[in-house]
């Protein structure tokens, strides 16, 4: 199994965490987004949207889009469960995860920020843009989780995976996290686990 990944990609980070939690062995194939590797003809043959992650299974099947990959991982490797069996609880976990994955990340990813710069916005304006969307998302996430040791009870879930990956970006871009003590406490508990630690951006083979 091969994971096409970029070390700072939060979407790749999500998938690395899930694979590590499930104990799934995989090889990392670095795709340097800053250098433009994602737009090469070779990589477009793997993922036509020119993004990461892409997960190539042992039979050559390629899965794309991090949330779809995470759902596949959950079904293919059900233990430990990252989504509750109860349908209402499952919907609540998915909803919290999607705040990070669909309301925050898409407007903050590299190609959006590059487009803002191409339209004449400064670096500071781009950072303010990202900080604003992350603050909105973190505020909403904090409001919908019941809490516990993790976002939903005593074990990490899909919601925690998406939260930790997004908090990496929040730290990177200087978001004020003092209003979110619950979230940073959850982050610390997650990162103390070997699977989350192994998946950290700085622990990847292409980290630079």
UniProtKB/TrEMBL annotation:
Domain (GST N-terminal): residue spans on this chain = 1-81
* MF term (GO), any: maleylacetoacetate isomerase activity
Query: CDD domains of this UniProt entry?
Result: GST_C_Zeta, GST_N_Zeta
One Pfam annotation reads GST_C_2
Domain GST C-terminal span(s) in chain numbering: 86-208
Enzyme nomenclature, EC number: 5.2.1.2
Q: Which UniProt keywords apply?
A: Isomerase
Q: What class of enzyme is it?
A: isomerase
Q: Which family does it belong to?
A: Belongs to the GST superfamily. Zeta family.
Q: What is this protein called?
A: Maleylacetoacetate isomerase
Write down the species. Answer: Thalassococcus lentus
